[in-house]
Amino acid sequence: MKISIITPIYNEEGNIKQLFDEIAIALIGYDYEIIGVNDGSSDNSDKILNNLAKTSPNIKAIHMAGNFGQTAAISCGIEHSTGDIIILIDSDLENDPSDIIKILKKMEEGYGVVSGWRKNRWGNQMITRKIPSFIANRLISRIAGLKLNDYGCTLKAYKKDIIAGVPLYGEMHRFIPAYAASRGVKVGEVEVNFRPRKSGKSNYGMWRIFKVILDLIVVKFLNKYIARPMHFFGGVGFIIFFLGVLSGVVSVALKISGIRDFVSTPLPIFTALLVMVGVQLIAMGVVAEMIMRTYFESRGKKPYQIKEKINL
């Protein structure tokens, strides 16, 4: 059994060597390869990655032609992997490579996907971090249809035949377990260590949260409504209709009570308009996502371009 470790890299010059060294120590006795995908870094990550690739045939280097995002880098690594099991790990050293063995042992229990759970990630930050994280993961679990405690943990393992055919766009790499579970794959979760970043700065910002939410909507659509679009759009239409009726009831109540006349306040119409426009934009986003997927897949195009490959 061969293991492919894939790590997307973006401006991680201070972390790459230690990460690769720790992975090599953790996987002593295993047949493995490490694929570092440089996603258009502007620091010396490319040079460090090249030097590491020259020291061992187990280390593969891929340099993207620009910054295409974490999901595109992961997709690129998967397509160039040769292992039977694919393991994803962040390059910022927040994931502990020694946990790879724990994940592999869980895979031996018959799981097709195993996800890491950074249980003690936020320490005593109960109000500002733990509770919001708990709520977010419960919400995502509810919508995605698979309960996981830590959807945001990059450290995950997949059987190659499960992940190979999954099209990845946007921020969808984090939802692969839900996608796999919807197709009958057994998904497990293990507690893993979390280490605070020591070098470089985080590439995660508030904007990524909104992108994750939008991608979650698309995943839900793909898992449940792809063959029944009328159920999806009809459901949205019903919600809009219900809101319209509710707005009308409130307007009538205000009229009967003598508080406001129908034309004395634009609030009911304004609220209904905002809700309808928002829902329509989300629906349009889903349709655009499907068009984009059809375009890429029908033409065999990739959401990235490669500039250079070493040991591949």
From TrEMBL:
<dbReference type="GO" id="GO:0009103">
    <property type="term" value="P:lipopolysaccharide biosynthetic process"/>
</dbReference>
<dbReference type="InterPro" id="IPR001173">
    <property type="entry name" value="Glyco_trans_2-like"/>
</dbReference>
<keyword id="KW-1003">Cell membrane</keyword>
<keyword id="KW-0472">Membrane</keyword>
<dbReference type="GO" id="GO:0005886">
    <property type="term" value="C:plasma membrane"/>
</dbReference>
<protein>
    <submittedName>
        <fullName>Glycosyl transferase</fullName>
    </submittedName>
</protein>
<dbReference type="Pfam" id="PF00535">
    <property type="entry name" value="Glycos_transf_2"/>
</dbReference>
<feature type="transmembrane region" description="Helical">
    <location>
        <begin position="235"/>
        <end position="257"/>
    </location>
</feature>
<feature type="domain" description="Glycosyltransferase 2-like">
    <location>
        <begin position="4"/>
        <end position="163"/>
    </location>
</feature>
<keyword id="KW-0808">Transferase</keyword>
<dbReference type="InterPro" id="IPR050256">
    <property type="entry name" value="Glycosyltransferase_2"/>
</dbReference>
<dbReference type="InterPro" id="IPR029044">
    <property type="entry name" value="Nucleotide-diphossugar_trans"/>
</dbReference>
<keyword id="KW-0448">Lipopolysaccharide biosynthesis</keyword>
<dbReference type="GO" id="GO:0099621">
    <property type="term" value="F:undecaprenyl-phosphate 4-deoxy-4-formamido-L-arabinose transferase activity"/>
</dbReference>
<feature type="transmembrane region" description="Helical">
    <location>
        <begin position="269"/>
        <end position="292"/>
    </location>
</feature>
<keyword id="KW-0812">Transmembrane</keyword>
<keyword id="KW-0328">Glycosyltransferase</keyword>
<keyword id="KW-1133">Transmembrane helix</keyword>
